[in-house]
Amino acid sequence: MVWWVSLLFTVLSLMDYCFLDLYIWACDAAIPYLKNPxxxxxxxxxxxxxxxxxLRLSVRNFFSEIFNGTRLPALLKIxxxxxxxxxxxxxxxxxxxxxxxxxxxxxxxxxxxxxxxIHASSTLEESTRLTxxxxxxxxxxxxxxxxxxxxxxxxxxxQLVQKALDQDFVAGPSQVQSELTMSEYFxxxxxxxxxxxGDGGTGDTxxxxxxxxxxxxxxxxxxxxxxxxxxxxxxETFLGHTSPISRCRFSASGNNIASASxxxxxxxxxxxxxxxxxxxxxxxxxxxxMSLDWESKSDRxxxxxxxxxxxxxxxxxxxxxxxxxxTTEAFPSVLDLKCSPVEPIFVSAAASRGHGSxxxxxxxxxxxxxxxxxxxxxxxxxxxxxxxxxITSLCFNHNGKILAASATDGMIHMFxxxxxxxLQITGWPAHDxxxxxxxxxxxxxxxxxxxxxxxxxxxxxxxxxxSLQNQGHVLWSxxxxxxxxxxxxxxxxxxxxxxxxxxxxxxxxxxxxxxxxQVRGHINGLQTLPHSAAITTVDWHPTLPFxxxxxxxxxxxxTSIL
Length: 562
Fold this sequence. Notes:
The chain is α+β, with helices and mostly antiparallel strands. The strands form nine sheets. Strands 5-32-31-30 form a four-stranded antiparallel sheet, with no helix packed on it. A four-stranded antiparallel sheet has the order 6-7-8-9, with no helix packed on it. Strand 30 (535-540) and strand 31 form a beta hairpin. The chain has helices spanning 2-29, 49-68, 74-138, 143-152, 158-171, 176-189, 486-491; strands at 193-196, 205-208, 214-216, 219-221, 232-238, 245-250, 257-261, 265-269, 281-284, 289-294, 301-306, 310-315, 320-326, 333-339, 345-353, 363-372, 377-382, 391-396, 403-407, 411-415, 424-429, 435-440, 446-453, 460-467, 474-479, 496-498, 504-507, 515-518, 525-527, 535-540, 546-551, 556-561. The protein has a domain at 232-561: YVTN repeat-like/Quinoprotein amine dehydrogenase (Methylamine Dehydrogenase, Chain H), CATH 2.130.10.10.
């Protein structure tokens, strides 16, 4: 009986709550029908300021809890991350510009310090000479003999003494007078001069553009101040490598860049944020990378040559090695690779191992092989004679009918259009020693060579533009020894690159700046913004005024110039 009573009370209490809720809802529903609800004692509280503030605070707290407990939508994250990336890019650009300015200031101070040291050394030598001369004059026994000797051989003027001292500092006492005379002559004349190739060359007299430079025996010298800094539109630096850069190459379209380092890695990347980064990749080759070349007709394939005789074909879209070739064991160093601009073939220049300490001396004999890119098989081996010196650089002309190859003995070899026949059509000695790089000119009537000349302790690294219509005729030349010093040549092979118009020639440098020469121009050239170490590789964009430089400080930099 008791449980019936408790159940009845429970039901009645629930009905009470329901009737109360119905009453509240009925009151709320009656508000629109009242003439002045704000005056009604039942609803007056809902129109007060206190109730409004309490309601606003409650709603605000409610939505705050909702949004704090909800994850941020992905679209909003993309927008915020993009803004953050743009802000960081601007900061990096400003920091790079500030770093370049500081490096330029440091280089200027170092140059001033070097000039002061040279001046102090020359002043000390001059004072020593004057002292010794005065002491020898005092000990002369016969004044008549001394007077006759002074009248016969008058002392040099102070200006001549200073110039002779400066020249003696560079070339040694035996060459002071001849070098001084030649330098003053060409400086005053400011005109073209003739160069005889000599030393095993063709012997033809060749006219060279001098453009107001000092010349000695057909070789030029430029003053540091004659190379102003290039005007930069923008600059992007890539810091993904962990060892010095050995090669950098733009793809055929210019959208991608392949960079290789001495630790055996190749990285494919893009400098433009609007270009998809889906092709970016890191390739581990397990040996030093010595050569790179993109397929000429597309950006699909990248060829990689290594120091252990390997030739890898990397498919950029599939992100994998589609073919892994190898040279013979006798020629393990793949120094250069070059794809034909027309046919599906490429040529590899491999070398045996030498017994020297410098980069060139470590190279032995050469092997030139033509490969088919469809079957990935050897087509033919080009003839070079018995025990030929190593081939350092290759270059096809625009239609792929002529292949040029440069060797460590200073020779330029030219092969005919039919690569399968392997016919060498001509060749000539271009330099006294090794040629580092070779390029066809923009109009296909000339060819550029970067090589070393001079003998014994005198070292020159020069650029020649050779005429193909008049073999052995030099159209233009530059001496770039002060950029490409002998010490840097011991550890790397210097190279050069022509811009899309064929008017500017960019060359690697043992300094932190690289020279940009004006081909057959009336100004000496420009120099790049500084890296923090030597510039080991260069390349130009195929169509735009962009160039890429790789440095011994592990960085790769893309620069757009005005």
